[in-house]
Write a structure and sequence with these properties.
There is one protein chain. The protein contains eight helices and eleven strands. With 232 residues, it is of the alpha/beta class. The chain has a five-stranded parallel beta sheet, sandwiched between helices. Strands 6-7-8-9 form a four-stranded antiparallel beta sheet, with helices on one face. Strand 10 and strand 11 form a beta hairpin. The radius of gyration is 18 Å and the shape is globular. The protein starts with a strand and ends with a strand. It comes from Paenibacillus glycanilyticus.
Length: 232
């Protein structure tokens, strides 16, 4: 049974989420304060976290940041904040998805299952692949088994989605991909609404981590009016 943590200060919303997820076979715990939710998340044992942004004691952005520093567990932000800057900030801190309130409970469960399935598949691949299955390209070394990335032989930490995006681009070099295509392939959901912000933030994060000068990227190139490609 997969264990989920809901960090939500509205008891009505939290109870509705919890009841629906319980009905679909999940084990669910709820925290109503940011600091309480962070403490529970850092204790481990959760397969996915649903996180509100407007929380007492510690806002959801800080909770997301501190969880991501310690774990790659999928984090789904569930918030009424609709501005693109809020989504960009959330993805920039390592969130895997951003669900707007009000939301359909069926959609919530579908997204939870999709992220759980993708995360398990990636972890399973890492456990089953041999160490020799690594990629070396342009000073970047990717160890598939351990999901570790080295730039000029210095290990650089990547979130789950940053790693997925980098691996996809590296294994498809010199091909141009639209933002919509990347969103669909990496996030695996209907690319409506937040796809451009999601991809833009993650491309920026990749450049910060692998480029010598992120303002003049040599690896992850922008093809204006089309999308992005990884150069070799």
């Amino acid at each position: 049974m997969k264990r989920l943590l809901i960090i939500e200060d509205d008891p009505v919303i939290a109870e509705v989420q919890k009841d629906y997820l319980l009905a679909h076979g999940f084990e669910v715990n709820v925290a109503e304060r940011g600091d309480e939710g962070l403490e529970m998340a850092l204790q481990g044992g959760y397969n996915l976290i649903l996180l509100d942004l407007m929380l007492p004691s510690m806002d959801g952005y800080e909770v997301c940041r501190r969880i991501r520093e310690a774990s790659n567990v999928p984090i789904l932000i569930v918030s009424a904040k609709k501005e693109e800057i809020d989504k960009i900030r959330g993805f920039g801190l390592g969130a895997d998805d951003y669900i707007l309130k009000p939301f359909g409970l069926g959609e919530l469960v579908a997204r939870v299952k999709a992220h759980l399935s993708r995360y398990e598949r990636l972890i399973g691949q890492g456990q089953s692949e041999h160490r020799k299955d690594e990629l070396r390209l342009n000073g970047i070394r990717i160890e598939k088994q351990s999901r570790r990335v080295f730039v000029n032989e210095r290990e650089v930490p990547f979130t789950a989605k940053e790693y997925d995006l980098l691996l996809f681009l590296v294994t498809n070099p010199n091909r141009v991909f639209r933002k919509e295509d990347l969103f669909e392939r990496i996030w695996g959901m209907d690319a409506i609404g937040s796809d451009h912000a999601t991809v833009t933030v993650h491309i920026s994060k990749l450049r910060d981590k692998i480029e010598r000068d992120p303002s003049k990227p040599q690896h992850v190139e922008t093809v204006w009016g089309v999308g992005y490609r990884f150069n070799i």
